[in-house]
Structures are given as C-alpha cells and as structure tokens.
C-alpha cells in the first residue's frame, strides 16, 4: 500500500502538463526556427558538398562485408 499519494501526485502533474499552456513568444520562435529572413533563402540544407570529405574518408568502410555476412 501507500501508492495512493504517489499516484495522486502523478495525476496532478499530468493534468497540469496537459492543460497548462504558457504564453508563447512567436517572434522569438520564428527567429530560432527560421533564422534571419533573406540571409540564405535559396540555400539547400541538404547540400552534399559539405559531406564530400567524409564520403571520401569513409568510402572503404562500406565496401568491406561484416563478419556475419561472410558466413
């Protein structure tokens, strides 16, 4: 026994998290998510040129079969 208080507190915390909605600063959120407007409007975030050094460095790793595949 003795679980009643712990369970009641968990329910209280869960309800508070579910129904409490703090004021959101939408301007700060836009700055954080979008950055500055116009700075890199046409840039591709998945540009592979940034990773070409890694591709060359680890190219031989993918060519070797794992031990479990050799059997």
From TrEMBL:
Q: Name one Pfam family in it.
A: DUF3073
List, as start-end ranges, the regions of compositional bias called Acidic residues: 61-71
- Region described as Disordered: 28-71
InterPro entries named in the record = DUF3073 (IPR021426)
Q: What is this protein called?
A: DUF3073 family protein
Q: Name its species.
A: Brevibacterium rongguiense
